[in-house]
Design brief:
Elements lengths: L3 E7 L13 E6 L2 E7 L3 H7 L7 E5 L5 H4 L2 H10 L6 E5 L3 H12 L7 E5 L7 E4 L3 E7 L7 E7 L5 E2 L1 H7 L3 H8 L4 E2 L5 E2 L1 H4 E2 L6 E5 L8 H4 L5 E5 L7 H7 L4 H11 L3 E5 L9 H10 L3 E3 L5 E3 L2
Parallel strand pairs: 3-4, 4-5, 5-6, 14-15, 15-16, 16-17
Antiparallel strand pairs: 1-2, 1-18, 2-3, 7-8, 8-9, 9-14, 10-13, 11-12
Helix pairs in contact: 10-11
Length: 305
């Protein structure tokens, strides 16, 4: 099966700790890399976990609070020093270009690649990026400033050609792609074989949803319905529910409620408040509602199935 994997580089809330780094993830979709949020120290974490800088083609920012974007200027500067020439596309729910442009003009004059800022509408659920293997759509969230999550949906793979039928019918290499795309094959005796008889179905397409930062939104479940892996912030335990409401964050139990109502396959919780030196109570709270829950920790790499 082709790669569909998320790497966790940072999962703290606004105050980084010795244990956790600010928010940053990298999603690997068929060996194309997408960064999600870019907290301070992102490039250090990329090096630490052996993730290839040059293959990051786009960055998706949930919002413009510092713990989600302060790593961006340094990362772009490093791209420049490494001789990057490929355009870098950045998606954000605010006018990032007006903020980032002067910084790049001052610190990175003569940049040899384009930094293209795309302002997305955080109030709508709409596709903002698409290529041959993936589509990315926004997920409206509710935070103290404009904020959105992102859903990454793998496009369906072509069916697999059956090796036994290739040998039995002596199907030439040049015909295999057409058969995968639905064409039939006529054998030496004039019998026509439909594509369905020559192939087996590919694995179902996979999906990943990233939801941080937000207060609990019951309607979010419909937008992440049946997602393969849901990342949802769990800044507080339910004992701090009032604080969660005041700061527009979620509790671990609320994150699990979204996963349960969405019929998600798995839940990954993160964005932990610095007050928790041990996140086990947050995990236990979430698992009581949605058993298939994991804690996000730096260095975690999950294959999404």
């Amino acid at each position: 099966m082709e790669t569909f994997r998320v790497h966790i580089l940072g999962c703290s809330s606004a105050m980084p700790t010795l244990k956790h780094h600010p928010a940053c993830q990298v999603l690997n979709v068929r060996d194309k890399l997408f960064m999600i949020d870019c907290g301070e120290g992102a490039q250090t974490q990329l090096r630490r976990y052996g993730i290839n800088f040059s293959r990051i083609s786009a960055i998706f920012l949930s919002h413009l609070h510092g713990d989600h974007v302060f790593g961006l200027p340094g990362l772009i500067s490093t791209f420049s020093m490494l001789g990057r020439t490929q355009s870098l596309h950045i998606y954000a729910p605010d006018d990032l270009g007006s903020v980032l442009g002067p910084w790049l003009d001052f610190f990175c004059p003569g940049l040899e690649f384009d930094v293209v800022c795309h302002q997305v509408n955080p109030a709508t659920h709409s596709i903002v990026y698409e290529d041959r293997s993936l589509s990315v759509s926004t997920l409206p969230l509710s935070h103290r400033i404009a904020c959105c999550g992102y859903r990454f949906d793998e496009k369906p793979l072509l069916p697999h050609i059956r090796r036994d039928m290739i040998d039995y019918l002596h199907i030439p290499t040049y015909a295999i792609q057409g058969i995968k795309e639905g064409a039939g094959w006529i054998d030496g005796e004039g019998k026509e074989w439909p594509s369905e008889a020559l192939t087996r179905p590919a694995a179902p397409p996979r999906s990943y949803a990233y939801c941080s930062d937000t207060q609990y939104l019951p309607g979010l479940a419909a937008l992440v319905k049946e997602v393969s892996l849901l990342y949802h912030e769990a800044t507080f335990a339910s004992t701090e529910a009032l604080r969660a409401r005041q700061t527009c964050h979620s509790t671990a139990a609320q994150a699990a409620q979204v996963a349960r109502d969405a019929h998600a396959r798995r839940l990954l919780i993160g964005h932990f408040s610095a007050r928790y030196t041990d996140e086990t109570p947050l995990l236990d709270e979430a698992k009581a509602v949605f058993p298939d829950t994991l804690l996000a920790n730096e260095g975690l790499a999950l294959d999404i199935e």
